[in-house]
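pasting for the record
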Amino acid sequence: MEEDIIKKYYKIGEVSEILGVNASTLRFWEKNFPQIRPMKNKKGDRIYSLKDIEILKEIYYLSHNKGVRLAHVSKKVSRNPLQTDARLHLIEELRNFKEQLLKLKEQLE
């Protein structure tokens, strides 16, 4: 069984594919949401962190699934930066727990 390898940083094309939006949409969101701060390499390519991706997922969910206008999305996202950090921490803890369970399962077999 092959486990998903989680990278720490993603290029704009990868993030675009993950979210199912155009790269231009990601650049637009970056301009309108100061919470999104991708790093840039020497060539100027955007490199997104997991935290950036979580915020982008939240923006996508609120704007596309819930139908919230971007002006209101901005207010909701900016109110919850700690929740995003807590969610990322919880996800990391769950991944570690999953790894421990898989190792234990292998030992039992």
